[in-house]
Each structure stands twice: as structure tokens, then as C-alpha cells.
TrEMBL record:
Protein's UniProt keywords contain Nucleotide-binding: no
Pfam family membership, one: TetR_C_1
Domain HTH tetR-type: 35-95
Natural source organism: Amycolatopsis deserti
Residues in the DNA-binding region annotation: 58-77
Assigned keywords, A-Z: DNA-binding, Transcription, Transcription regulation
This protein's record includes keyword Transcription regulation: yes
PROSITE patterns to which the protein is assigned, alphabetical: HTH_TETR_2
InterPro entries from the UniProt entry: Homeodomain-like_sf, HTH-type_TetR-like_transc_reg, HTH_TetR, Repressor_TetR_C, Tet_transcr_reg_TetR-rel_C_sf
TM segment ranges: none
Protein name listed in UniProt: TetR family transcriptional regulator
């Protein structure tokens, strides 16, 4: 994963995309029987993206993995834009959606946040997909419906329910981008955070003036000692708790 490219969901042909997402396309009665299904194509595309990111994904590579000709792949999916929507809809179906979650609305939002974080861990390429216009597939809609129900009966308006969910999911997206980018930096550099800091610290001490930046010197030193890393490894839990504290204050005000 990286910041060098961003893909946009729902950027293909809307009619063909919805037909594929909802299984509405009619199989052709002409020609030989299809060797694959749309699900086969989607599964292979996810496998390739998981391994090497979206930059490495192409219709040609999906066809090669399937053992098919590139042009034959277009009989299943019109192009990469529609394929991306199928991939997003498929992976969001992985989030667990239990009916009984302890802890009321807060426990349910915590569970939702952690399930979304787990999906990003399994499929880091998902962080590269801008879903401001989400693919309106059955799994995306089912996930949205389930997650909204965590706030049902809290006294929030429908719009506030949507805004709270967007806030929580936006935090998860941002936090997991930081986590995964840090892990990738460690792999690419061959240094963990402690090793990276040990290589920088002696040089930084020569040029850093703590009297000029007293707050940064004090806080940075305390944080580094506590984390044993440049950033807080528990930042996800801290941030999630603070967001839910704010949601709790909003819900309390409605009562």
C-alpha cells in the first residue's frame, strides 16, 4: 500500500456495476459454457491485490491467474472499475455481525470498529479506495444497515446516527492507514521502530535545541520512553475510546 495511488469506487458503468453486484445479468445462451463465474474473477482479483496492492492489479494479471485470455475476461466484467466495486463489496462481507454484543451501543460500536480494522489488516489495498461514492452492492448495504442498528434507540436522529457511524469508521480508516504504513516502512527499511530511532537519535541530538522547542523536547521524551517507539502502539484504543466518550456525551444530551 502507499499514497502514490488512489482508486475511486462507483466510477464504472452504473448499470453494469449494479447488475454484477446484485447478480442481475442474464447468462448468454450463445457460445460455449462459461469457464468461470464473476465470483471467481473477483476472488482472484482480491488475492492479487492482497499480495501486491492495487498498483499491481490489472485485467491482464487476473486473466493470467485464471489461465484465461485477457479479452475473455471482459465477458465477465467490463473493466477494472467495475471489478473494484465487486472486490470492495466482497471483502466488507467479512465483518462479523453478531446479534448479541455486550455493552449496549458502546459495546456494539467498539465491535464494529474492530471488525473494520481487521478487514483493513487482511486487505490493506482497501485503504487506497476512496468510497465517498460507495458501491451499492448487497454486502455494502447489509453492513451499513447492521452498523446503524448499533445506534437504534439511543435518541439520536437518523442524520446523527449516520454522522456518528461515519465518524467512527473514518477514525478506523485513518488509524489503520497509520498502522499499516508503519508496518510497511519497517519491512521496507529492514528496521523496527527501536532500531530506526537508535540510528537517528545520535544525529538528532547534535542539531536539536531543547531550549528552542521545550514542549516538543519534554513531551517527545516522555512519549518515546512510554512507547519505546516514535508513535503510540495503543493509539487505536485511545482514539476509539475518546470518540465514544464524545458520542456518549451527545446521547446523554438527547435524554
Amino acid at each position: 500500500m502507499g499514497r502514490e495511488m488512489t482508486e475511486f469506487s462507483a466510477s464504472g458503468d452504473p448499470k453494469r456495476t449494479l447488475e454484477l453486484l446484485w447478480g442481475l445479468q442474464e447468462p448468454s445462451s450463445r457460445g460455449p459454457k462459461a469457464r468461470f463465474t464473476v465470483e471467481d474473477v473477483t476472488r482472484v482479483a482480491i488475492k492479487l491485490a492482497d499480495a501486491a496492492g492495487l498498483a499491481a492489479l490489472s485485467m491482464r494479471k487476473v486473466a493470467e491467474e485464471l489461465g484465461a485470455g485477457t479479452m475473455s475476461l471482459y465477458t465477465y466484467v467490463p473493466g477494472k472499475a467495475e471489478l473494484l466495486d465487486l472486490m470492495v463489496d466482497a471483502v466488507v462481507a467479512e465483518t462479523a455481525r453478531p446479534d448479541d454484543v455486550p455493552g449496549g451501543w458502546r459495546g456494539r460500536l467498539e465491535q464494529i470498529a474492530r471488525e473494520n480494522a481487521a478487514v483493513y489488516r487482511r486487505h490493506p489495498w482497501l485503504l487506497q479506495v476512496a468510497t465517498g461514492r460507495p458501491p451499492m452492492g448487497p454486502n455494502v448495504i447489509a453492513k451499513y444497515d447492521y452498523e446503524l442498528r448499533a445506534l437504534e434507540g439511543t435518541g439520536l436522529t437518523d442524520v446523527e446516527m449516520d454522522q456518528v457511524l461515519a465518524l467512527v469508521l473514518g477514525f478506523v480508516h485513518s488509524a489503520m492507514r497509520g498502522v499499516i504504513e508503519a508496518e510497511q516502512a519497517a519491512r521496507r527499511s529492514g528496521q523496527n521502530d527501536v532500531q530506526w530511532w537508535e540510528s537517528y537519535a545520535p544525529l538528532l541530538e547534535r542539531i536539536f535545541d531543547p531550549e528552542r522547542f521545550p514542549v516538543a523536547a519534554r513531551v517527545g521524551s516522555a512519549a518515546g520512553e512510554a512507547y519505546q517507539a516514535p508513535t503510540d502502539p495503543h493509539a487505536f484504543e485511545f482514539g476509539l475510546a475518546r470518540i465514544l466518550d464524545g458520542v456518549e456525551a451527545l446521547i446523554t444530551s438527547r435524554r
